[in-house]
Amino acid sequence: MDIAVVTGSAGLVGSAAVRLLSRNGFQVAGIDNDMRAFFFGPEASTAWKRRELESTIPGYTHHAVDVRDRDALDRVFSTYGRDVRCVVHTAGQPSHDWAAQEPETDFDVNARATLLLLEQTRRHCPQAAFVFTSTSKVYGDAPNELPLVEQETRWEIDPTHRFSDHGIDETMPVDQTKHSLLGASKLAADVMVQEYGRYFGMNTVCFRPGCITGSDHAGTHLHGFLSYLVKCAVTGAEYPIVGYKGKQVRDNIHADDLACMFLRFIRRPRPGEVYNAGGGRRIHCSVREAIDLTEQVVGRRMRTRYVEQNRNGDHIWYVSDMRRFEGHYPGWQHGYDLERMLVEISEAQRCRALP
After folding, report:
1. Beta strand 155-157 pairing with 148-150
2. How many CA atoms does the CB half-sphere of 82 hold within 13 Å?
3. Strands 273-277 and 3-7, how do they pair?
4. Cα–Cα dist 331/352, whole Å
5. Angstrom distance (rounded) from CA 220 to CA 41
6. 19-34 average pLDDT score
7. Other CB atoms within 10 A of residue 174 CB
8. Host H or E run for residue 37
9. Which of 7, 13, 73 is nearest to 207 (CA)?
10. Which terminal CB of the chain, N or C, has fewer other CB atoms within 10 Å?
């Protein structure tokens, strides 16, 4: 039996990976102790998703293990040994603001835990593909140094710049830039994952998403752009627009599309690779544009307030260039556009709001 170990298995990306891997013949061992509730409060808990996976995914086994616990991880990996064909590491602390509140915890969860998982993989199943969910934040605020032009509803890159047609590629520098503490901890993990691929020849990969979304996202004010935006629209709660006049641009990728990228790599790994992973030029929007489209989807005006001070190290404009991955894995393509994402999220939010 081919085993897939998925960390953060009850989270947005982890649960998408669990479903896809199970459909493709893997028996999935999930690792998740609901740290999201610790980070963001009870409303962000993923306990409901764990229950759903246990009841609907054949052969799914859940391990309520903290990814910082070396001994507990060793027990999990010892159980499956060389039957493990892939390790999909999606667990992490994802918020700029939260990282600044507890830097040590953030670094332990994002960086040290990744090292522990790499070592468990090297010891117990060295031929397995190791997929790490990194972040575009590893580039720090270097994208803010690009030549940007203010337009009516968004910031946009100067059309003469080499990133204009396709977005930011993997040559964007990571030095001499403010990363935020989150970006720094994820970069430390990112580089370590690359090194295990290059130094030990392991089948490692770093995916660097911009904004990830989907109906399973437990979005909060501190993390989960589109999910939290739609939640506010559905419930009537006030949505805070933070900095940059609400014209900051993000590309968006659905968790299912990202999981499909993972599977492509698992089937044909390339050691030590790095890929930007987002909506690219096809699926991107500013906060203002997202609010306008969400109001159309939900069918009512949103309550918003503007916060002048932008988040420390936040991007003004970020669109992923997807050509490197598409060149290595031809045939992969996005299954979701922006409107489909918003419709799906709004329907899920309405269902959760029902008594």
Report:
1. antiparallel
2. 2
3. unpaired
4. 35
5. 9
6. 97
7. 14
8. helix 35-40
9. 13
10. C
Q: Which two tokens stand for residue 175?
A: 């030095």
Strand partners, 89: 7, 132
With residues binned 3-state (H G I as helix, E B as strand, rest as coil), the percentages for the chain, rounded to 5, are 45, 20, 35
Q: Is the dihedral of CA 16, 18, 19, 22 positive or negative?
A: positive
Q: Report which residue type is found at 238.
A: E
Residue for token digits 């930007």?
Answer: 276
Out of 234-238, 264-268, 296-300, 303-307, the most confident range is 264-268
Give yes or no for a contact between 213 and 281, defined as CB atoms under 8 angstroms apart: no
Give me 178's structure tokens: 């403010």
CA dist., res. 19 & res. 13, Å (int): 10
Please state, in angstroms and rounded to a whole number, the distance separating the CA atoms of residues 249 and 251: 7
Tokens 């994802």 locate to 94
Give dist(CA 355, CA 353) in Å, integer: 6
Greatest extent of the chain over all pairs of C-alpha atoms, in Å? 57
Tell me the average pLDDT of the chain: 93
d(CA 29, CA 18): 9
**Residue 72 has what pLDDT?**
98
pLDDT band for position 265 (cuts 50, 70, 90): very high
| Neighbour tally for 332: CB within 10 Å | 16
Please report which helix (H) or strand (E) contains residue 304, including its range.
strand 304-307
Q: What is the DSSP string of 248-294?
A: -EEEEEEHHHHHHHHHHHHHS--TTEEEEES-TTTSEEEHHHHHHHH
Angle formed at CA 200 by CA 194 and CA 201, multiple of 5 degrees: 80
Whether 352 has a pLDDT exceeding 70, the answer reads: no
Sheet architecture: strand order including 203-209: 61-63, 27-31, 3-7, 84-89, 129-133, 203-209, 273-277
Question: Across residues 219-246, what is the average pLDDT?
Answer: 82
